[in-house]
Design goal:
The chain is mainly β. Helices cover about 0% and strands about 55% of the residues. It contains 1 helix and 37 strands. The strands form 4 sheets. It has a 21-stranded mixed sheet that branches. An 8-stranded mixed sheet has the order 21-23-25-27-29-33-37-35. Strands 1-4-7-10-13 form a 5-stranded parallel sheet, with no helix packed on it.
């Protein structure tokens, strides 16, 4: 344009090969680019909107100023920004695709599900309309369902993003980037590591949980670490459940708080296959869980030998049913709801009580544990 101003709209719609360049100057209007066999370079200031439908090698390079909204519908676009996108970039692909962004972008909005490969920075990423996975680069701020991926590790800041990452088998580890709530269960149903990164996952469901797990539900091999799992008012189920054929869970440095039932329950009475295993390492903090810490049944195994347990709240009393004399007020760190389970404890620091074995010991004021065989306390 030789530094001139052109008033009107320009549409590039050609199948010719090569590179098309819009020279320096001002386009007082809209720009549309549909050049499937040619790359496009913009050196101009465009005052209106810009629509990128298709470009060769998926490359659109901006060296100028695009004042209006830039919309990309190309499903494999590569956008190189060396200039300014004043109103931001909108990704609105017809079908889910991958878009490459290089350079710095003040604002990016995702209207359709997509994956962004980022070499640069996005200051504000808006994924409230559709979920997005971002590989590489830096995101300063985001809203909506955003999964940030770095070397196979997904970082998430909402329960929607967490569930999307769990469903994506490309991720072997998920890290929480913030604390958040969930009104539905979070199900770790494949081999995966979940790093709470010091954050809090709060469950808000008010369902009774009799036939479903309403909290953190682990049915495969999974490690959960550095996480606080908390119940909101009205939550009725166990907060963490390890149930399913071959379920093998490891908890490392976790806090479980506020369950109206057990903090953790291990074992599914319907499971006739390989029994569930729970291993606890580091510090496990159990706070105000009504039934106590860990319930276990149906041949399952709980290993606490490498765990330091911090216990607050709910005590139960063990008393002699004949004399009515209370033998102990105890912290129920773990209890056995069937005689075929294994609870491995540290060598020192625990006292175990056999319940019902002699026909005289009972649990006072805790009818929910009527089937308990043994209680382990500290």
């Amino acid at each position: 344009m030789n530094g001139k101003t052109l008033t009107g709209n320009i549409t590039y719609n050609t199948t010719a090969a090569g590179t098309i360049t819009l020279g320096s100057g001002t386009l007082s209007g809209n720009l549309t680019v549909n050049t499937p066999n040619a790359s496009f370079v913009n050196n101009a200031a465009v005052t209106g909107s810009t629509t990128i439908t298709d470009v060769a090698n998926s490359t659109f390079t901006n060296n100028g100023t695009l004042t209006g909204l830039v919309t990309v519908t190309d499903t494999s676009a590569r956008i190189v920004n060396n200039g300014t996108l004043t109103a931001g970039l909108n990704i609105n692909q017809a079908v889910a695709g991958t878009i490459k962004l290089e350079g710095n972008f003040a604002k990016v909005t995702v209207s359709k599900p997509t994956t962004i490969t980022l070499a640069g920075t996005i200051t504000a990423l808006d994924a409230t309309e559709a979920p997005v996975v971002v590989e590489g680069g830096t995101i300063t701020g985001s809203t909506g369902t955003v999964v940030k991926s770095d070397a196979g590790v997904a970082t998430v800041s909402s329960v929607e993003a967490l569930n999307m990452a769990i469903a994506n088998e490309n991720f072997t580890e998920i890290k929480l980037g913030a604390s958040f709530e969930s009104s539905k269960p979070v199900h770790l149903n494949r081999n995966i590591n979940l790093d709470g990164n010091g954050n809090v996952l709060t469950f808000t469901s008010t369902a009774d949980g009799k036939n479903t797990g309403e909290g953190l539900y682990i049915s495969k091999t999974a490690t959960v670490k550095n996480l606080t799992v908390k119940a909101a008012a009205g939550f009725k189920d166990n907060l963490v459940e390890v149930m399913g054929v071959g379920a093998d869970a490891k908890l490392v440095d976790v806090t479980i708080e506020g369950s109206k039932q057990a903090a953790i329950y291990v074992g599914d009475s319907q499971n006739t296959g390989k029994k569930e295993i729970l291993t606890v390492e580091g510090t496990i903090t159990l706070i105000n869980n009504v039934w106590g810490g860990i319930g276990v049944k149906n041949g399952s195994i709980v290993d606490l030998t490498k765990a330091t347990v911090a216990y607050e709240g709910a005590k139960i009393s063990i008393y002699n049913d004949e004399t009515k004399v209370v033998k102990a007020d105890v912290n129920p760190v773990a209890w056995e709801d069937s005689s075929d389970v294994t609870v491995k404890l540290p060598v020192t620091g625990y006292t175990s009580y056999g319940i019902y074995k002699l026909g005289s010991d009972r649990i006072l004021a805790n009818a929910e544990n009527a089937a308990t065989q043994n209680i382990h306390t500290k």
